[in-house]
Every structure is written in structure tokens, then in C-alpha cells.
Amino acid sequence: MKVLIIGGMHGNEPLGIAVVERLTRQPVQNVTAVIANPQAQRQNTRFTASDLNRSFPGNEESYEGQRAKELLALCAGFDLVLDFHNTHCPDNDCVFIGENADEVLLNAASYMNLKRVIVADYDCINKYAKNCISVEISLSSPRNDVDAWVKTITALAAAQTLPEAHDVVKYRFAYRMTLDDNLTLNLDKVGLQAFQPIATALALKMGVQSPAYPIFIADRYTPYNYGGLLNKL
Questions:
Q1: Counting C-beta atoms within 10 Å of the first and last residue's C-beta, which end of the chain has fewer, N or C?
Q2: What domains can you pick out in the chain, each with its CATH number?
Q3: What is the reported pTM?
Q4: Contact (Cβ atoms closer than 8 angstroms) between residue 119 and residue 172
Q5: Which pLDDT band holds residue 203 (cuts at 50, 70, 90)?
């Protein structure tokens, strides 16, 4: 299987950058590794002018817009694309896929033992690259391990097919918790935990169907949001 590894979609999230650097020094057959946003990586910032992962399908008007176009064109030549991200929120390990994703992505999620799958319907890479699965790993997670990921990537690249997935749980974004929500609802005091359902009354106050599951809680990579709420599909 031909595999593309993307790191640095957000230039200050370290795991994907470290994986790409390792694969560049020690290449693996059938694997290509790229830094998505090298300018942001050099500056150790999330982006330069605009969030690259909100710039798809791309445009000619900005650096990130041009990079988005280039990345989509590159993705088309691979069987599987892994796009790596980090979050400060603990116990948040999961993956993102597009609404019309290739079936191999669910199989890949199960193979990687990342059974929580979020369907993205906004303008991120997953929406437009049907072969791209975004891997989201908490900084505090044991999965935040370059050596382990290189072994997994090597095994994926050597595989002809992947076992069919029967054990993934799919979610979709229902609401983005704002900084105002935190102030008015005292979310910092509630004890929210990633992927653990919040109280029905709290969900209703935010206009979200219950059960609702929080992610990216108080993530310092995205200080302009307090977090997100998911519903199961």
C-alpha cells in the first residue's frame, strides 16, 4: 500500500513533525513523508495567515490556500494518507475522516486501535481527500510515541489489505463550545472529560442533543474555542 504521511498541518503540533523527520532520515518503502506547512513549522506557530486545515480545497489568494491545493494534488497519488495532529486535552485520542471517506479508512482506524472516528463535514483535508485519515493524539497519551508510529506506518505500507473494521464508533461535531460558554456555564468547574457524556441539562443549555461528548477541552492549541461537543452517529 502506498502511504503518505503528513505532519505539521498545524506547525506547532510536534508528533507529526517528528514522524516526518524520522521517515526523512530513515525512509520506509512505499512511504512518502511531507511537512504540510513548513513556514508555520519554522515559526513554531499554528499557521501563518490562515489555518491550513480550514483552507481546503485551496486557493491562490494565500500561502495556506496554495499549500492546501498542493496537498490535495499530492494525496491523489496514494492509497492511504495519515495526517498527524496533537491536542493538550487528555484521553482525546481519535481520528477524523470525511463524510464520503474510502472504506479503507475505517479499517485503518481499527488497525491502529483508534476506534473513535469523527466524521468531518467542514472544510478540512478529510472532506476533500477521501483517502485521508487525520490522527489526533493527546500530548500526554502513550500513543504520542514516534517509534511506535513508525512501526505502525511500516506495517501499513507492507499490507496489501487491512482487516475489515467492526468495532469503530462514529461521531459528528454537534457544537463548538465558546469562551462565552465557559464563562456563563462555568465549564471549567464541571469536570468535563474527553468522550465522556456531559449532563443532559448542560447539553440542552447549549442546544445540543444528549448524550453529547466533549473533545478538545480547554486545548491550548485553540485558545479561541473552549472545546467541541459530539453526537454519536
A1: C
A2: 3-167 (3.40.630.10), 171-232 (no CATH)
A3: 0.97
A4: yes
A5: very high
